[in-house]
Amino acid sequence: MAEATPSGEPPAKRAKVVEPDWTAEFAEAKAKYNTAGQKLEEELEKDPQQRDQQRIEFLQKAMQNAQKDKELLLQKQSQPSEAKITEDVIDQKIKGKEWRLPENPDVSPLFNREKELEQVQSYIANPFKFANKDGLFNLLGTSGMKGIGKTQLLLNSLQAVENLSSTKAVYFTFNRHGELKDRFHDSIAAGNRHDEALGHAVLTACDLPKELAMTCNFDECLGIVRKLVSASSDERLVVFIDELGLLDAYEKEPVVVPLLQSLMRCMDKRKGKLVFVFSHLLEEMLERGATDQSGRKIDGTPLVALAIDIWRTNPDFRAWAEAARKHAGIHQLLLSCSGHPRCLFEGLKVVEDLCKSPPQTTTAFDRARQQIINECKFDGMEYKLEESMLMQWFSPLKQMNETALDRAGLLVRVKTGLGKETASFLHPLILSWRAQKNKKSSCLAMHVCHAYEFDAELAEGSEKRMEGLMFHYEAVLRVALAGKPIELRKFYVTNYIGDKFKTLSLVGALPTNAGSLVEFVTDFSDMDFVIDLLKKGKIVVSQKQFVEGVEYLTPWRLNDAEGKLVVACVQCKFVKDKVPWSKVKEHMRSAVKPLTTNKISFFPVIYATLDQDTIQESAYNDGVFLLYDISLK
């Protein structure tokens, strides 16, 4: 093969080495590395409380030692022949199909991604429109959590390239194509540059022997790929690289950012004849790979979830929508999918294939949820959701830094309006999975789990009985506060709150004994017993339905030296009828009169449906009203 032009990379010492014909020593080192890696992955998949930290550290050390052994063996190898791969050899191998492109995954229909597909097509058709004045091309990539549609966007874009003249495309992924990741890191360990290491990896994915692939520089690798895809030197070659984030998984030294920077320099040099399209879990990593202090920008396509109620309007889900109207558990399950494409279009399909129809019983519903979680591989992500992350996520004191959750692939991005504004939140199915797995060891997880259970009882179209959901959700917030003081308006976030309560600083002290924050009593007739529970930090709930004026009591302490007890008297009025607010508060005063007798301060908290026209300012100046739109329930 003729000597090619330099790749545009800074000079680097080239260690043109190959494996020692897979000697027993090298094979043993590789086996140790793979075995330790497999055992480490199995250990990390366990529930957090069941993991053996010493074993994890031991396996990580074993992998490091085995990797060092492999690198030393590579360094001891003799230099390969300087003979280059000839054009005749390349043509012969390709013609005989000894070297060929890997098979691509199946292409599924592109679910509401037309705008994103159009953006990718526009870039590929004319990348010069996306270059700055210095000739640096913008980095084109897509990002988003697992299952959100990144791979399908790349594959649909790959198909679309067939309609563009003078353009050929090829797809590689670090998720399926053999040992692509291992070959990349082997090349880096041998002293090659990042762009060359990628070239060596993709050639081995095309069935070139590793020792032969590693004799090629980047230009030669690119030349072979062009021949494989039948692209002439005058045609534009588009290389789709999927699942870049896997390159850094379980690795001590991150390589994704320098690889992106290296490949973009190669792309700049070829002035439109080479285009890369990337996918990564995190948009942040693509941005870091783009900037490189060069002025280069990113043309990112971060994927958001589909409409959360797409199952209402998409005819493919007609049977599910009908089942949701009859079974509150199905309704919760569909909303919990949160517009996540894999949950909806693959997870629900698995349930249909196994059950022949949407589940009709609570047991079948629970099984269906588990099948969707398995199909989306959310159960493999649960161990990344640590207790400290949940505490920060639910804490009303401050907005959590979402980086850790985002890096773990636990956040789903959703549209918040008609514009481009989006928000990220913890995927409900992942949260419910963790709650179920940890409810016996975590008070926070236990109350999250109970909140899901009560929510599943709120059938669509019926009068809402929300108190169970609300007091368990309040318990979650109190656990997340961890006994720290908070202004009342930051705990009960609403515009309908009396002025004297807005800056009131309170402490939600937690019970001294472990366990539930919620205590059930038959009714409030034994108020001495109820007050004793409140003083111990318990949310007290009456099991007697329709107690006039109040459904549960929540204890607070003033944030001062005395720490006097203050009680929130909570009433839920999630009905479509107009509510006589003055009568509700009158009944509430009657129900909690013993609090006044015992000189315990209290204030009303009323959860209600949107009904602002019936609420006058005088109605809430001595309490808190939280109004919700229940039309989505």
Overview in brief:
With 633 residues, the protein is α/β, with parallel strands linked by helices.
Q: What is the average of the pLDDT values?
A: 83
Oligomer: single chain
Number of separate helices: 27
Task: Report helical residue fraction.
Answer: 40-55%
The main sheet comes to: 9 strands, mixed
Low-confidence stretches: 1-20, 78-83, 460-464
What's the level 1 CATH class of the largest domain? Alpha Beta
Describe this structure in words.
With 633 residues, this protein is α/β, with parallel strands linked by helices. It folds into three domains: 114-302, P-loop containing nucleotide triphosphate hydrolases (Rossmann fold, 3-Layer(aba) Sandwich); 304-462, no CATH class; 483-632, no CATH class. The strands form three sheets. Strands 8, 9, 10, 11, 12, 13, 14, 15 and 16 form a nine-stranded mixed beta sheet that branches. Strands 2-3-4-1-5 form a five-stranded parallel beta sheet, with helices on both faces. Strands 6-7 form a two-stranded antiparallel ribbon. Strand 15 (601-609), helix 27 (617-620) and strand 16 (624-628) form a beta-alpha-beta unit. Helix 1 (24-44) packs antiparallel against helix 2. It is elongated and about 100 Å long. The relative contact order is 0.07.
Write the layout of secondary structure elements.
Elements: H1 24-44, H2 53-75, H3 87-95, H4 114-125, E1 139-143, H5 150-161, E2 167-173, H6 180-189, H7 194-205, H8 210-213, H9 218-228, E3 236-242, H10 256-269, E4 274-280, H11 283-291, E5 298-302, H12 310-313, H13 318-326, H14 328-336, H15 341-355, H16 362-375, H17 387-394, H18 403-407, E6 411-415, E7 422-426, H19 428-438, H20 443-455, H21 467-481, E8 485-487, H22 488-491, E9 496-497, H23 499-502, E10 505-507, E11 518-521, H24 527-535, E12 539-542, E13 552-558, E14 565-573, H25 581-591, H26 593-597, E15 601-609, H27 617-620, E16 624-628
Parallel strand pairs: 1-4, 1-5, 2-3, 3-4, 11-12, 14-15, 15-16
Antiparallel strand pairs: 6-7, 8-10, 9-16, 10-13, 12-13, 13-14
Helix pairs in contact: 1-2, 4-5, 6-7, 7-9, 10-11, 13-14, 15-16, 17-21, 19-20, 20-21
Keywords: Coiled coil
Coiled coil: 26-76
Region (Disordered): 1-20
